[in-house]
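Input record, target 12 of the design panel.
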């Protein structure tokens, strides 16, 4: 495939329409006044679906349609649970589980049983409430996915903290928490410093460690328009992704017919070489005198230390540890120096390392050196995944609340909150494995599927006494991560909620979703479920009327009173006015730090991992998936069929005497995957390899970035050996 998007995307839209019952029902669903269910770019809301924050229409992508068509599936019939044992569910692929249909009745699994058993809502709630009341709060773990609403997330962590624990986590610990920690250490705020409109006026965008052509396709519209204005795009990625070279937008006739060039310059460091590369560009910017010294002196702290560090580094070390030669580094620096308005965007190729926070700080260093933060049309943009992953963190689903939120929560509700430190997600998993936790409550998502070291994750979750899942559809966690008692509660999708809810985009923009009629009888609102459980478990022991808090309007009033920057959400039901969270977008050089200055950081460059006979493995998403949800087994953009594959550069195949389609066993320090098919892939830098997440999670160690606790999904050392499945003896069986 020579470009991303285009006519195949148009054909895919028609196929998804057929799955959803026709083009008209799918179109109506996509156009409803609800925030998009896929990425955090920020679509829909009160302007109607398929409208972005700049008011542009039509804005829709395959991810939107995949998520919507999934929710428009028929219900899973009652006989399904009699016909399919747990063992049979475990044999299903992620994509097959996704296509089983909508969950519409509570389900119970008890250790020793062979099947899930449908139960009624009363029994489900009674079982959960009884166990929670009998369990010490410090033995519980609360987790929320970015598909949930701000209201459900706020109510969940309020329930958990009044129950008595701060072990409250969200999915960002396994994706962009390195961005949050890194940005907070620079600007005082852990989110993007820009709004969507800033990209429309930029003359350069860096896309670092990501593949938005597959995972955030609507962002490609902005890059296409930037190129047409004469702007430039620099892509930094160990893999040449076809959609970042040339993309055809179905929403733009010119682009659809002729394609649109994206990258002016495509640079391929080795996996793990980003920090050295970014530092090298910073060194060259300083060397050629392209810094904004006045800005650095007036608005930043740490320039003297950073300048000393940059000037003391040798080019030999920088090039060796990045895998990028001096000429390419000089070219990046020259292009950057000749640009006026620059946006730095990155995804998990930057955060999924043991030095993920350092990577983010290095990007910020590079931006601050030329004054590209603290003014319009330039700044820092972590490209976040789930549509409300930023919002659930904003409203408090995190082990450590910000001091202001902690104090306001106590005063607003007249309560005393626990002060015992909460566990991060990985620490909670390890506590479950050690027997220190006995109950986990998961609001959406796939905790099992998002974990590194899948074998450990399965064993850890199986040691729990109770594991509660709230989901719309089946996923691998429901099949593989089973506690002594596992209960699945079917939830309504966002556009089926009986009350309005809100979501926050990656640009700090709060959208209001109207909800809508349920597609099937049975599923319940997330807010309703949480409020009912809180009332049963805590009841009058806390001065909160949980039945009243089942009204999302009441939750928004509490959020407005408790969370700084969210004051406008308290009147959004009347005003219908969506808004940017205040205090986060920096269009002036006054930052949210104690002294109003941005902080520069000095780093030690990590060596490239690996030795003779090993490869650096990066786990990636395919074009046909979103996070752990796999919609299609084939990866159209990379031209790969199936997911039991490892993508290798032909040089590495020749070096290890491997041939195309040969089966190999892949080993890491953590796990082994057998019968993996070798796929020649010239688009990856030699010495590195690709496998698909979450299937390859069995190989990923539990090593995390010490500052953010984010696992290193993008830098796993592996070895390969011919598999038994290639042998003539095996073939004769």
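The sequence produced for target 12 reads:
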């Amino acid at each position: 495939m020579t470009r991303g998007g285009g006519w195949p995307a148009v054909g895919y839209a028609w196929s998804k329409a057929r799955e959803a019952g026709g083009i008209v029902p799918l179109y109506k669903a996509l156009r409803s006044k609800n925030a998009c269910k896929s990425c955090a770019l920020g679509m829909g809301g009160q302007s109607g679906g398929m409208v972005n924050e700049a008011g542009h229409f039509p804005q829709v992508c395959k991810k939107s349609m995949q998520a919507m068509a999934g929710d428009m599936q028929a219900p899973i019939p009652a006989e399904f649970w009699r016909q399919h044992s747990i063992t049979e569910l475990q044999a299903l692929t992620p994509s097959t589980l996704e296509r089983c249909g909508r969950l519409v009745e509570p389900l119970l699994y008890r250790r020793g049983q062979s099947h899930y058993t449908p139960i009624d809502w009363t029994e489900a709630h009674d079982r959960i409430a009884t166990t929670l009341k009998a369990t010490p709060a410090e033995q519980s773990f609360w987790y929320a996915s970015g598909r949930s609403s701000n209201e459900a997330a706020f109510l969940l962590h309020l329930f958990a903290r009044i129950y008595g624990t701060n072990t409250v986590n969200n999915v960002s610990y396994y994706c962009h928490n390195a961005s949050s920690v890194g940005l907070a250490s620079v600007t005082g705020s852990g989110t993007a410093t820009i709004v969507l409109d800033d990209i429309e006026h930029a003359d350069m965008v860096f896309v670092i460690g990501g593949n938005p052509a597959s995972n955030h396709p609507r962002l490609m519209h902005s890059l296409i328009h930037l190129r047409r204005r004469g702007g430039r795009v620099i892509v930094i990625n160990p893999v040449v992704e076809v959609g970042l070279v040339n993309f055809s937008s179905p929403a733009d006739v010119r682009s659809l017919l002729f394609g649109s060039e994206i990258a002016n310059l495509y640079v391929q460091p080795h996996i793990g070489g980003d920090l050295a590369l970014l530092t090298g560009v910073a060194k060259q910017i300083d060397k050629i005198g392209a810094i904004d010294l006045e800005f650095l002196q007036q608005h930043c702290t740490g320039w003297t230390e950073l300048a000393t560090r940059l000037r003391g580094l040798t080019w030999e070390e920088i090039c060796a540890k990045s895998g990028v030669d001096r000429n390419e580094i000089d070219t990046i620096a020259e292009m950057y120096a000749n640009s006026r308005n620059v946006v730095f965007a990155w995804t998990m190729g930057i955060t999924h390392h043991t030095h993920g926070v350092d990577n983010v700080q290095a990007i910020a260093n590079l931006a601050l050196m030329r004054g590209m933060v603290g003014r319009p049309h330039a700044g820092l943009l972590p490209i976040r995944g789930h549509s409300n992953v930023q919002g659930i963190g904003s409203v408090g689903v995190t082990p450590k609340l910000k001091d202001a939120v902690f104090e306001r929560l106590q005063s607003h509700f007249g309560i005393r909150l626990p002060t015992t430190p909460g566990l991060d997600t990985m620490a909670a998993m390890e506590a479950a494995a050690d027997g220190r936790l006995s109950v986990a409550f998961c609001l959406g998502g796939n905790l099992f599927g998002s974990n590194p070291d899948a074998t450990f994750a399965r064993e850890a979750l199986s040691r729990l006494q109770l594991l509660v899942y709230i989901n719309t559809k089946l996923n691998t966690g429901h099949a593989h991560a089973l506690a002594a008692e596992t209960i699945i509660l079917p939830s309504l999708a966002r556009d089926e909620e009986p009350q309005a809810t809100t979501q926050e985009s990656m640009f700090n923009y709060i959208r209001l979703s109207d909800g809508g009629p349920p597609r099937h009888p049975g599923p319940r609102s997330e807010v309703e479920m949480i409020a009912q459980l809180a009332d049963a478990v805590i009841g009058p022991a806390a001065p909160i009327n949980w039945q009243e808090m089942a009204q999302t309007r009441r939750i928004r009033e509490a959020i407005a009173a408790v969370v700084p920057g969210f004051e406008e959400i308290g009147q959004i039901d009347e005003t219908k006015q969506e808004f940017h969270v205040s205090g986060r977008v920096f269009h002036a050089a006054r930052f949210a730090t104690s002294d109003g200055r941005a902080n520069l950081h000095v780093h030690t460059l990590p060596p490239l991992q690996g030795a003779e006979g090993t490869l650096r493995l990066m786990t990636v998403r395919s074009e046909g998936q979103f996070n752990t949800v796999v919609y299609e087994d084939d990866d159209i953009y990379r031209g790969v069929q199936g997911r039991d594959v490892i993508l290798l550069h032909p040089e590495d195949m020749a070096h290890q005497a491997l041939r195309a389609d040969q089966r190999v066993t892949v080993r890491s320090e953590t796990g082994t995957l057998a019968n993996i098919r070798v796929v020649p892939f010239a688009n990856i830098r030699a010495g590195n390899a690709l496998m698909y997440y979450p299937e390859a999670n069995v190989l990923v160690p539990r090593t995390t970035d010490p500052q953010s606790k984010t696992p290193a999904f993008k830098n796993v050392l592996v070895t390969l050996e011919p598999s038994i499945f290639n042998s003539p003896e095996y073939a004769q069986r």
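The longest helix spans residues 121-134.
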